[in-house]
Amino acid sequence: GAAGRRCLGSSEHTDWGFLTLILQDGVGGLEFAVRRLDGTTEWVPVEPRPGALVCNGGDFLSLVTRGRFVSPVHRVQPPPDGRERLSFVYFGYPSYDMPLTAIPGWDDLAAAACR
């Protein structure tokens, strides 16, 4: 990259809200961490598809489902030299006064789904 060039990306993180929806342009850059059985992590790119939304559960979703849905670790790579990227992102957050408890009856629903 050229000196002084602005590079915007995002270091690895999880989203703390309930749900994130992402509409990527054709440039991409979104990657999810996949933990292997040997303990290593592989970063897997999410290839952009026209009109497709990426749906990402957040930390709050993991909390209210008692870990049934895990918020994935992900990052965003800077765009390649000379390319611009435009993504639209919706962050769904709970109300600040919402109680931090599991969904009532969740254990019964989860058990039934595993039968």
Automatic annotation (TrEMBL):
InterPro entries given in the database record: IPNS-like_FE2OG_OXY (IPR044861), IPNS-like_sf (IPR027443), Iron_ascorbate_oxido_reductase (IPR050231), Oxoglu/Fe-dep_dioxygenase_dom (IPR005123)
Pfam families, alphabetized: 2OG-FeII_Oxy
Domain Fe2OG dioxygenase: 1-94
Gene3D superfamilies tied to this protein: B-lactam Antibiotic, Isopenicillin N Synthase, Chain
PANTHER family: 2-OXOGLUTARATE (2OG) AND FE(II)-DEPENDENT OXYGENASE SUPERFAMILY PROTEIN-RELATED
Protein name: Fe2OG dioxygenase domain-containing protein
Organism annotation: Cryptomonas curvata
